[in-house]
Every structure is written in structure tokens, then in C-alpha cells.
Amino acid sequence: MSVAARIHALMWGVFSLGGFIAAFLLPVLIYVNNIAYPLGLWPMTSKDPTTLLVADQLLGSVFVLVTIGGSLFHGIFRFQTTLPELGMRGQTDRIVSIGYAIIAVGIIVLLYFLLILNPSFLKMLPIPHP
Amino acid sequence: MSQPKKYPELPRKKLGPGWWLSNRHYTMYMLREITSFFVAAYSILYIYQIAVLANSPGSYARYLDVLKNPLMIGFSIIILGFTLYHALTWFMLIGRIQPIKLGSFKTTPVQALIINTVLLVVISGAIITIFFMGK
Question: Above 0.95 for ipTM, yes or no?
């Protein structure tokens, strides 16, 4: 199998994993952060849900990274294959390039701000520590 | 040099951008694919929320006020609807391409949908319990 074919297979594998993440983890985050909190519905919290997740709990930061990173990958990857079907067939290469750029920048920015909010999060990442 | 084609190319009907509106099945297919836009849009919006929280507490308080705006709540309900539609169609799809086999028994797509929907409710409840209950 060529390197390009391996990378292609890996991308589809991550896309599939992202589909599960978006299906199982994203709805509850949207509900709690964007519907329950503004409307004062169950489960009522003393602080806003995002502050509770990323500033107070290490596990919460991991949850946000996995949920948002996986959903971003899945959403953009799938949308970039949908756009050509909506009449943008001539722009496929450009759409794919922009899509991968959004995924890469989005995940790096997310990781960067999660590290600022919760520096102990660094210890959980698979990189050598001083 | 390009290789000669093995088979003659059949004439293909050129489809316009609205081809998916001509048939109910095509419309449902496109609606399912469009859920990806809402999944991606929410992810980008949430990354922005994290960035505002990390940068400035004052700006974050203003952002929380934006979350309470009725238009934003309406938009969030639409995003949640599309995300749930993504979840249910994903469960159905998974049941079709990778059914669970137990001996001679094999799950149907509808059974996979039911099992995974129950799992979605359990996981959502567990997340609320771990991260938000009593906090």
C-alpha cells in the first residue's frame, strides 16, 4: 500500500471516529452549554458550563478536546465532500485544501487555549516533559 | 500519456446544483450530509468561546450574554436538531455497514438505531453527572 493510500485510509478512519464522537458526545455539550445554561434548565450550574469544564477539571479539558476536535474533523471532512455535490465540482481541490487547513488550525488553536486555561493538561499529552 | 479507456464512456446527464430536490430520497440524503455543516459550525463557534474565555474575562461575560440572546438560543436549537439528526442517521448507517453478530443472530439497522440511541442517552446522562451535577 502506498503512503498516499495509507494516509487516505487513516483520514477515513479518523472521519469515522469523529462521526461517533459527534453522535455520542456533541449533543449533550450543545444542550448544556447553549440551551440549558441560557434558559436556566436542568442541570443548573453555579458557573457557566464551559468554565466548569475547562478551568476546573483536567478530565473536562480532555472531554472538550476530544469532542470538539473529533466533531470539527468529521464535520469539515464530510462537508468538503458534500460541496462538490452541490455544484462546486470544479473547485474540489481548493475545497479540500481549505478544509484540511481549517481542521489543522482549529485543533491547534483549541489545544493552545486549553493549555492556557489548564496548564496541567500538558502532563496528559504524549510529549516528553522536562 | 493517458491509457486508452477499456470501455466506452456512457453519456452522463449533467446535474444542476438542485438535483437533490427532485426526489425525496435524494433530499433526505442531502439533509443528512448537510448536518456536517452544523457540526463543523458549532465546533468552530465553541473554539471561539474557549479563545474568548482564555483571553479576557470581561469579553467572556459579554459572550455569555450573547449566548442568552433569543436569536442565539434559536440557532443553538437548530444546531442541536441537526446534530441529533446526524446521530440518528449515523447509528442507522453503522447498523447497516457493521451489524453486531452474536452467534447466528445479526442486528438489523433499526435494532442498531435503538441500541445506540439508548447508549446516547446513557452517555449524555453520565457526562452531566460527572461534570455538571451539583456544581
Answer: no
